Amino acid sequence: MISSNDFRILVLQFKTYIESLSIPDRYMQEHIDLKVKHTYDVIGNIRYIAKNTGLPESDTILAKTIALVHDIGRFQQFLTYATFDDRLSVNHAELGIKVLQDLDFFHAIAGNVNHSIIIQSVLNHNVPRLNDTPDKRVLLFSRLLRDADKVDIWKLMTIKDVVFKILDQKHPDKYTVPNEILNCFQNGLAVPDHCAETLNDYRLLRLSWIYDINFPATFSLLFKNNYAAKILAKIPPSERLDEISDIVHGYIHQIVKI
């Protein structure tokens, strides 16, 4: 079982790893900083979800540990390929496991770590759909991580224009919601990656993650921070977007019973 002190040791090791990276320029540094902040924000989200789901403190600390390392592959990914797009580079979850192994990241608390749960949860966090598994603990922590990760990506989308790197471009004044994306919302389905080409497509794709959320506490975070409305407000208006907005808000209100 990982203790609070163990977690503090791991946070220091994470910071040491980040400081050891050779970052060549400001552009790279901005993207590394983005993922460092994302990591800490996902830790905060997973703590909130775990506690509000009624999990014991020991499980909350394990969940925070998984969040701490879930994107540790992102740093080397961006330094090597200048993108966070796994399709154009490497699977960042698999790279993350390799980084953890190369660093012997858990050596200081080796006797307290369930490596299997951590590894499988990290590997599960970026798959399109989480398959059922007989290991209910792996399923639990995979779901916690996926939810906590999505919440921070929603928040980030309200602040910065990011798809697979930070964007610096003029936004189009008009946008037509593609048929496939509209159909996904009409049928309560997450938008698949192949449907998204533009920034606004990706905004809707990520908003459609509401159909892949596992815990009421996650919807509570989505609702109280008004992320759905803020994301929709960034997209040029249209009748199709109004329809999606009605669907999304109706679905969220149904879950949180507002």
Number of domains: 2
Q: Which fold name corresponds to the CATH topology of the largest domain?
A: Hypothetical protein af1432
Could you tell me the mean pLDDT?
A: 94
Main sheet specs: none
**Element string (H = helix, E = strand):** HHHHHHHHHHHH
Terminal Cα span: 38 Å
CATH architectural group of the largest domain: Orthogonal Bundle
Regions with little confidence, pLDDT below 50 for 5+ residues: none
Query: Class of the largest domain, according to the CATH hierarchy?
Result: Mainly Alpha
Query: What is the fourth-level CATH superfamily of the largest domain?
Result: Hypothetical protein af1432
Tell me the number of helical segments per DSSP (H or I, 4 or more residues long).
Answer: 12
Overall 3D form: globular
Question: By helix and strand content, what is the structural category?
Answer: mainly alpha
What proportion of the residues is helical, as a percent range?
A: 55-70%
Write a short abstract of this structure:
The protein is mainly α and 258 residues long.
